[in-house]
Amino acid sequence: MHFNLLFILTLILSSSSGFAQKDSPKIEKVINICAEDTGWLPYSSPVRDSATGEFDVLGFNRDVAEAVFSRVGIKFKFVVKPWQRCLKEAIEGGVDIVLDAASNEQRRRDYLLTTPIYTMTPAYFFHKSFEASLRDKTAKQIVSSQPICGQTGYTYTNFGIPNEEVKKLSKALGRIIDLVSERRCKVGLTRLEVLKRELPNYKEYTDIAYSEIKGAKKENFYWLINRQNKFSEELKKLIDREYEQLTKKGVISKLKSKYNL
């Protein structure tokens, strides 16, 4: 009798263990997370170790990654590359996740998108000499204010402005600010939260004014997951699940407060 009871308990425990393993995807490799080399403050801030020359990433995304992956025992490391290389290597290379991506039709085809990690505000900036004619404009009104400039590799369709209307002249926001200051671009496009962090670094640009795009909706930003990995679906489910739990527990809210988001 005791033997039979022990045998039944062993079977039950074995079955429970099997279900637990099934519910928790086994991702045994180190996850490579790519951040853009120019940074995306305060979400991703590349820093270089002067001793080793290796890059790391600080900011909101790092804190979220640590919170998400530490809960399930998955290791990760950051790699820092130009934006287009991050995107390319998350299709055909060794990058598993790309940070700080807005959504568009092409990206939805090429990658798996996580649940939204944060939202941002579509905005534009201009020389103060144009303030009377350019303050508080809709996307449709901005399109008539050519030339409009933006960053290489970025998408602005969520602004209500077709990408073909935007001259994408540099990957660095600082260079676009420079072109607007010189009045070689009438309007520069960016996200308000990033612009507010970047402008104080360019104290000479006291001639720059900015505004939210009137009527534009807040824009979701995602992590892009490499579809080619055999564990891509499991990785998306895991990130979405853990992010939801962290949100319910108030952890994400605290992280946003930490970075004044």
Automatic annotation (TrEMBL):
<feature type="domain" description="Solute-binding protein family 3/N-terminal">
    <location>
        <begin position="56"/>
        <end position="259"/>
    </location>
</feature>
<dbReference type="Pfam" id="PF00497">
    <property type="entry name" value="SBP_bac_3"/>
</dbReference>
<feature type="signal peptide">
    <location>
        <begin position="1"/>
        <end position="20"/>
    </location>
</feature>
<protein>
    <submittedName>
        <fullName>Exported protein</fullName>
    </submittedName>
</protein>
<dbReference type="InterPro" id="IPR001638">
    <property type="entry name" value="Solute-binding_3/MltF_N"/>
</dbReference>
<keyword id="KW-0732">Signal</keyword>
